[in-house]
Design brief:
The complex is a heterotrimer of chains A (about 350), B (about 260) and C (about 450).
Chain A (H helix, E strand, L loop, with lengths): L16 E5 L1 E2 L2 E2 L1 H17 L3 E7 L3 H9 L4 E6 L8 H15 L3 E5 L2 H11 L5 E6 L1 E4 L5 E7 L4 E6 L6 E5 L16 E4 L11 E8 L10 E5 L8 H10 L2 E4 L1 H5 L20 E5 L5 H7 L4 E6 L12 E4 L2 H20 L1
Chain B lengths: L2 E6 L2 E3 L5 E2 L6 E2 L5 E3 L1 H17 L1 E8 L5 H10 L3 E5 L9 H14 L4 E4 L11 H9 L2 E12 L4 E8 L2 E8 L2 E5 L11 H9 L4 E3 L18 E7 L8 E3 L2 H12 L1
Parallel strand pairs in B: 1-6, 1-8, 6-7, 7-13, 8-12, 9-12
Antiparallel strand pairs in B: 2-5, 3-4, 9-10, 10-11
Chain C lengths: L20 E4 L3 H12 L4 E4 L14 E3 L1 H6 L9 E11 L4 E6 L12 E3 L2 H14 L3 E3 L4 E7 L2 E7 L5 E3 L2 E4 L6 H5 L11 E10 L6 H6 L5 E8 L1 H4 L4 E7 L3 E9 H6 L4 H9 L12 E11 L10 E2 L2 E3 L8 E2 L4 E2 L1 H20 L10 H8 L1 H8 L1 H9 L1 H19 L7 H16 L1 H16 L1
Parallel strand pairs in C: 1-2, 1-11, 2-7, 4-13, 11-18
Antiparallel strand pairs in C: 3-6, 4-5, 4-6, 8-9, 9-10, 12-15, 12-16, 13-14, 14-15, 17-18, 19-20
Helix pairs in contact in C: 1-3, 1-9, 9-10, 13-14, 14-15
Classes of the chains: A alpha/beta (about 350), B alpha/beta (about 260), C alpha+beta (about 450).
The structure holds flavin-adenine dinucleotide (2 copies) and adenosine monophosphate.
Chain lengths: ~350, ~260, ~450
């Protein structure tokens, strides 16, 4: 099972930039299209092809869409064994394809599924895998430079993978712009051999429930709630409505189950960069800041004057969110009316 | 029925205390006190929960320098039955590939039915080690786990996973590697007598790379990734103005959203 | 070859009666007791609720170390500065009248055994000395009650699972907020008038070197202890303010009676802020940033409110036993805490050697304390608190103002002869104290402070 290759493979045998297209029941995760756009730039610099990797069941349309969004080639592994996602069949399939096609770079969205998958497949491929990347480039030698925040975002570390292939990275969702579909797609779709069988699988999905699939990364305005709301989203929701903003959250609020994980901002959530970010009852932990510190104007509402969030906000008010939010919402609606009159 | 449950715990610099050395611009991690990676405390809780469900033994494992022993003491204080310190100079410079190999071999040596890990570490935050362990051993893996349901009669562990846009319940055959979602398992407090024992009288078993027969497969040389450079990031410049009245804030908000 | 577990892990550890004594609280008193007993060969368990000893402990800043220096090797102790100058100021609303003392002898080791310290570091170091002597320390564990058997105290209960542990002797060193001792009826809850509240900030001066040396006229490790009284220090309340210099921070705070805090509706923060902005104080702390804020109660009952120090199976030491001297001129608790811990530790070690338990077996502790400076000092100043309370308006409002007025008059520059100025100055003071008779009475009443 294990493939303990010795270091020092012939890196020149490997080329092309792969992007893993993550789909669940026909829905593609937005980060996949973001990576396609970014992968395009790398492929052009390297003079390589951009290959989209589509694994799933009945994924023809997704393969077509990947072409339309700029892939030179789409590698498809289409089989019921791949729906829904499981690490072991996906991992084995990927390993086989890497062995056959020898990609130089493989980019994977840093979603839960992407990270589950990447961690699994990098080992048998003896690939170099960099997690949670926020910047990518290639250097003059064609080596992937994967940059990621380290130690709470104070440092940007550049991770290289010199002697192993593929050079893999999971990329944080929301960091890059997505590739838009065009009509001039002229790439090809290639069916890969499916190497796994249901009988070999060691895991079984018993139930699957779909929740909120909101994409907060596109929002221009965000009101984010933290543990300080203590389960009552109403004040923040009022404010969000007055501002016409999307609701997002810190991990603490997500963990409490007050709001869906799709709306989590931060290192292990999404990176957002709205024009306006209002943090309501959020302390400003580094893991949270990492996901929102590229926002335009940042506003903090917190009752603790020493909360770190105030150091990372343009404007703040020290007060009880239960009072401040509705009050603010009222005034905003007032102002808005004035503007209208 | 009883399972052997291994838990990977790692010592990390205390997040709140890591500073940047003004001279080198590098992170001054040496001066930050070492603590247990917070997600690993939750991994321990998940492991003890599984033990509560099926019976068996929970064995904490860390790969690290000799002073990483303190995190094992904490694990034993919390309720682990035993602990292994895997320590060897040969491990220096290991990235996630050899780290997960080491933990995979350790889990095999312990004949583990389940390996429980934290979601990720606060110092390297890759989350790659648990799937790496599973891959090295060809075992099943369950990541982002929010709840565990041991099913000894099926020789399987079922888990509720947090996945994009929802949740799923997955059953995996033993042996299985579990990485628990951070924030879902509230670590139990250590018992008084266990705490006294763990901190004063307990000694973990120590294994080396040689014991695990992986001396040539660990360390800097076999690590596929290397750090090419570190740049300190200038913090985003914020105005940091605190206003007294909601009115003032409303004004700002109307301005920026105009 | 597969490696194997050593397999010697204990499945169900139990430490009941494995220790000779349990000490509750790793403050100065607790660590002193633990160290003393460990030095005498006892197995000691020291239980501290903070994540490390001293983590949350509050005090002003000067640690008096004559006993500590005897108990352990003092060389590695984390001291900030030695006290080279003591200054006493009377503050009215806008004026200051001060006396400063800085004998040359204080610059020589052991520096009159007076050092500013930060408790987070100092208490941790002191507890470490006890650990090195063989004490077992458990942190993050709060004692919630005592275990009794036939009336005798035989152990403690903690907030942890499986949290009861037994030992023949228990030392209560839990500080002023002594919930365990009170809960177990070993002492009465302090009456309001005998409790003061202390609030303190640690200030730093970001991006500036030598601020402390310059502002307080210091070189090397020398430091200052400034005490302030009068309405400019704590407003209407009964108490005072202080400033101590640390290595590169300054501790500033106020301590005053809780009763006044309620009566005058004066929050600790507001009182401290007013003190910080007094014209005599503000320049000393200009451009500072607060890095720490803390508040705590101080027992000030003096000699009369010392509870029974020993019980069947237990002894009470330090602030828990009300051993603090706070009279305006002296604010001393650290030395008394250590001294009491030392005597209690000795008494227990002796009782353990003789295999005796019970209150009588520990009587050596109160006896020794009675003979020591601790009780002697408290008794000497016991009368003073009452006197000061009776003269409160005079001492804290009228007199500071009168001294300020007297100074203003005495040094007035105008075309009137100095004799008239001197007369006006004298009158200002005499008016305040009630003429010569008043002054004489006052001098008589307070002579013990200085003689
Ligand atoms: C491996 C790892 C990954 C992580 N990833 C993320 C991530 O992606 N995103 C993320 O956000 N976090 C993440 N975290 C968690 C992070 O460290 C913090 O724990 C979390 O961000 C705290 O959330 P919070 O600010 O909502 O809660 P808290 O830190 O509890 O703060 C609540 C705040 O609300 C204020 N408050 C309380 N009541 C009121 C009131 N009535 N009115 C006004 N204010 C009030 C309080 O003063 C406080 O500042 C991660 C942690 C780890 C270890
Ligand atoms: C503002 C202020 C300024 C002061 N300034 C000075 C000064 O300049 N010089 C001076 O000599 N004295 C000063 N004092 C007095 C001095 O701080 C005390 O007298 C001294 O600290 C008493 O020591 P202790 O060991 O008895 O109590 P503490 O130092 O209070 O220690 C008690 C310990 O017990 C722990 N504890 C409490 N309850 C429990 C429990 N249930 N279970 C486990 N652990 C527990 C606490 O965490 C703490 O570590 C000042 C006090 C205050 C409040
Ligand atoms: N050196 C190590 N020793 C033991 N467990 C580890 C080690 N490194 C990582 N782990 C485990 O793997 C999880 C994920 O770590 P990482 O992939 O480094 O983010 C951690 O939460 C631990 O449970």
């Amino acid at each position: 099972m294990t493939d303990d290759e010795e270091p020092g493979i012939d890196v020149d045998e490997y080329d092309d930039v792969w992007v893993f297209v993550e789909e669940h029941a026909g829905d593609v995760m937005p980060v996949s299209w973001e990576l396609l756009e970014e992968g395009r730039k790398l492929a052009e610099k390297l003079g390589d092809e951009l290959v989209a990797l589509v694994i799933g069941e009945d994924v023809d349309e997704i393969a077509e869409e990947a072409l339309a969004r700029g892939a030179d080639r789409v590698l498809v592994a289409d089989d019921p064994v791949f729906e829904p996602y499981r690490a072991d069949p996906y991992g084995e399939q990927f390993r086989a394809m890497v062995e056959e096609y020898k990609p130089s770079i493989a980019l994977i969205g840093g979603t839960h599924t992407g990270r589950d998958f990447a961690g699994r497949v990098a080992v048998p491929a003896h690939a170099g895998l960099t997690a949670d990347v926020t910047e990518i480039d290639v250097d003059d030698d064609g080596l992937l430079q994967a940059r990621r925040p380290a130690f709470g975002g104070d440092v940007l570390a550049t991770i290289l993978c010199e002697d192993h292939r593929p050079q893999m990275a999971t990329i944080r969702p929301g960091v890059f712009e997505a590739a838009e579909p065009t009509d001039e797609a002229d790439g090809e779709i290639v069916e890969a051999d499916v190497v796994v069988e249901e009988a070999d699988c060691i895991s079984e999905v018993l139930e699957r429930e779909v929740g909120d699939t909101a994409d907060i990364t596109e929002a221009e305005r965000i009101v984010a709630v933290g543990h300080g709301v203590e389960g009552d989203l109403e004040p923040a929701r009022e404010l969000a409505e007055a501002l016409d903003a999307e609701l997002a959250a810190s991990r603490a609020a997500v963990d409490e189950g007050w709001i869906d994980g799709a709306r989590q901002v931060g290192q292990t959530g999404k990176t957002v960069r709205p024009d306006l970010y209002v943090a309501v009852g959020i302390s400003g932990a580094i893991q949270h800041l990492e996901g929102m510190n590229k926002s335009g104007t940042v506003i903090a509402i917190n009752n603790d004057p020493n909360a770190p969030i105030f150091d990372h906000a343009d404007y703040g008010i020290v007060g009880d969110l239960v009072e401040v939010c509705p009050d603010l919402a009222d005034r905003l609606e007032g102002e808005l009316q004035e503007v209208v009159q | 029925m009883s399972w052997t449950i291994a838990v990977g715990v790692k010592q990390v610099p205390d997040d709140d205390e890591v500073g940047i050395d003004p001279d080198t611009g590098r992170l001054d991690r040496a001066s930050a006190p070492a603590v247990m990676n917070p997600p690993d405390r939750e991994a321990l809780e998940a492991a003890l929960t599984i033990r509560d469900q099926v019976g068996g033994e929970v064995i904490a494992v860390t790969m690290g320098p000799p002073n990483a022993k303190t995190v094992l003491e904490q694990a034993v204080a919390m309720g682990c039955d035993d602990a292994v310190l895997v320590t060897d100079r040969a491990f220096a410079g290991s990235d996630t590939w050899p780290t997960s190999l080491t933990l995979a071999r350790t889990a095999e040596a312990l004949e583990a039915d389940v390996v429980v890990c934290g979601e990720e570490t606060t110092d390297s935050s890759t989350g790659q080690v648990p799937p790496g362990i599973a891959a090295h051993n060809g075992w099943a893996q369950l990541t982002y786990v929010e709840g565990v349901d041991a099913r000894p009669e099926e020789d399987r562990l079922a888990a509720r996973r947090d996945v994009e846009g929802g949740h799923e319940l997955v059953a995996a055959e033993l042996p299985v590697v579990v990485a628990v979602a951070y924030g879902e398992f509230d670590p139990r407090p250590a018992g008084l007598h266990r705490k006294i024992y763990a901190e004063n009288d307990f000694e973990p078993t120590q294994w080396t790379a040689e014991d695990l027969e992986i001396k040539e497969e660990v360390g800097l040389d076999v690590s596929p990734t290397s750090v090419g450079g570190m740049e300190t990031v200038d913090p985003v410049d914020r105005k940091g103005e605190v206003v007294d009245e909601t009115d003032d804030l409303a004004e700002v908000l109307t301005e920026v959203s105009a | 070859m597969t490696p194997e577990l050593d397999g010697d892990a204990v499945a169900d550890p139990n430490y009941d009666d494995e220790f000779d004594a349990i000490v509750v609280g790793a403050g100065l008193a607790g660590s002193a007791a633990a160290l003393t007993m460990a030095n005498r060969g006892l197995e000691v368990l020291l239980i501290e609720r903070g994540s490390s000893p001293g983590a949350k402990n509050v005090f002003g800043g000067v640690c008096y170390t004559p006993t500590i220096r005897e108990l352990t090797d003092f060389d590695g102790a984390p001291l900030e500065r030695y006290v080279a100058e003591r200054r006493f100021s009377m503050l009215s609303r806008n004026d200051e009248t001060a006396v400063s003392i800085s004998p040359g002898e204080w610059h020589e080791a052991p520096h009159n055994d007076s050092y500013t310290v930060l408790r987070g570091e100092f208490d941790e170091w002191f507890a470490e000395q006890a650990v090195e002597a063989g004490t077992t320390l458990v942190t993050s564990t709060t004692v919630t009650g005592l275990v009794r058997k036939n009336g005798r105290i035989v152990g403690v209960e903690t907030d942890r699972p499986d949290g009861t542990i037994r030992a023949p002797y228990v030392v209560l060193a839990e500080g002023g907020n002594s919930l365990v001792s009170e809960g177990a009826d070993l002492k009465a809850t302090e009456t309001r008038e005998n409790v003061a509240v202390g609030v303190k900030e640690v200030l730093e001066f970001p991006g500036r070197d030598e601020v402390i040396e310059d502002r307080f006229r210091l070189t090397d490790d020398a430091g200052v202890s400034y005490h302030y009284f009068g309405e400019g220090a704590v407003g209407d309340a009964f108490g005072g303010g202080f400033i101590y210099t640390n290595d590169d921070t300054v501790s500033i705070g106020v301590a005053y009676r809780i009763e006044d805090a309620v009566a005058a509706d004066q929050s600790p923060e507001a009182t401290l802020n007013a003190f910080k902005s007094h014209p005599a104080v503000a320049p000393l702390v200009r451009d500072a940033r607060t890095v720490e804020y803390s508040a705590k109660t101080i027992p000030e009952g003096g000699a009369e409110s010392i509870p029974d120090l020993v019980h069947d199976g237990a002894a009470i030491v330090g602030d828990a036993a009300g051993l603090v001297l706070n009279n305006g001129v002296h604010l001393e608790g650290t030395n008394m805490a250590v001294e009491s811990g030392y005597h209690a530790g000795n008494a227990i070690a002796r009782a353990a050697d003789q295999g005796r338990v019970g209150a009588k077996a520990l009587q050596a502790y109160p006896d020794a304390l009675e003979r020591s400076f601790v009780v002697q000092n408290l008794e000497r100043y016991a009368w003073m608190m009452d006197a000061v309370e009776a003269d409160r308006d005079l001492l804290f409002e009228d007199l500071p103002r009168a001294f300020a007025d007297a100074g203003t008059e005495y040094f007035r520059m105008d075309r009137t002869p100095k004799e008239a100025h001197a007369e006006n100055a004298k009158r200002a003071v005499l008016d305040a104290v009630g003429g010569w008779t008043g002054a004489a009475k006052l001098a008589l009443r307070y002579r013990k402070v200085v003689t």
